[in-house]
Amino acid sequence: MDLRTTFTIGAPFSANNMYVPSAKFGMVKSKKYKKWIEINLENIKHNDKIANFPVDIEICVFGGRGFGKKADVDNIIKPIGDLLVKANIIPDDNHNFIRRYDVRFMDFWHQIGESTTVITIIQPEI
Prior knowledge:
- The chain is an alpha+beta fold.
- It has helices at about 30-45, 75-85; strands spanning about 5-10, 20, 25-30, 55-60, 100-105, 115-125.
- The strands form 2 sheets. It has a 4-stranded mixed sheet, with no helix packed on it. Strands 2-3 form a two-stranded antiparallel ribbon.
- α1 (about 30-45) packs across α2 (about 75-85).
């Protein structure tokens, strides 16, 4: 049986807003992106080491404030991969460590408030 580790965060971040131009340094991480990483590092603290690679990553976004019907689901993959690396959950977000992403959007019209993102890391059975 595969090992599953699940994290829940708020609204995902769009790759369209990860970087902003800087006259001095070219493109730099936006303040909003840095803040999103900082906030969500607390939400995905994990004690068990992910050991079996490459993993599959499932991302399910439940619609709400911050991510609605018009948002592009493909734009959330890179920020979530970067978040998992920054949290030391996976060593890198390249093909050696991530086999695939499965991204779904669930439009829950009755959900009130911010959207919710559920991230599941599936380690292959040894």
